[in-house]
Amino acid sequence: MELEDIVEILKADPERVVPELLEDVRNQYGEIPYIMNFMKDLPEIFIPKTLYDNSIMREFKNLDPETVELISIGVASALRCEHCLKMHIRVAKRRGINKEKIFYAIMIGASISNAAVLAESTRALAAEFPGDGSGDEERKGKQCLDPNCEICDISRAALK
User: Which of the four CATH numbers 1.20.1250.20, 1.20.1560.10, 3.40.50.300, 1.20.1290.10 does domain 3-159 have?
Assistant: First the structure.
């Protein structure tokens, strides 16, 4: 959506804009998400949220709609939002995305969610047992020792 279109929407009467935005969402997703239906009677919240969501979910120039939908599925999976997950799976299915791709998006989300739990929890644990070699303070100033680390680009040969 171009800036001029957004300005026109914001200038228009909310009584007219809300139904137009809902119809646009229905055309994009094949349904109106629960949250939007819930907020439709609060135009001061609904309109800016819908415009924001539109700019994030549909206006990327480098991501195709399939990729955006798979990202949405992975994130909904990671956040354990059953309602969002089910809706985005339905949208993906309507867009012709196959079950295997959807499953891999879910698996990526699950892996990231698992890593987030471990990162937070192991740091909390290490903070309670400082100086035993397991915390971040032990690694400060040292190079990464992961031989597969693409960020540091340290090869197996360099570690030997």
Answer: 1.20.1290.10
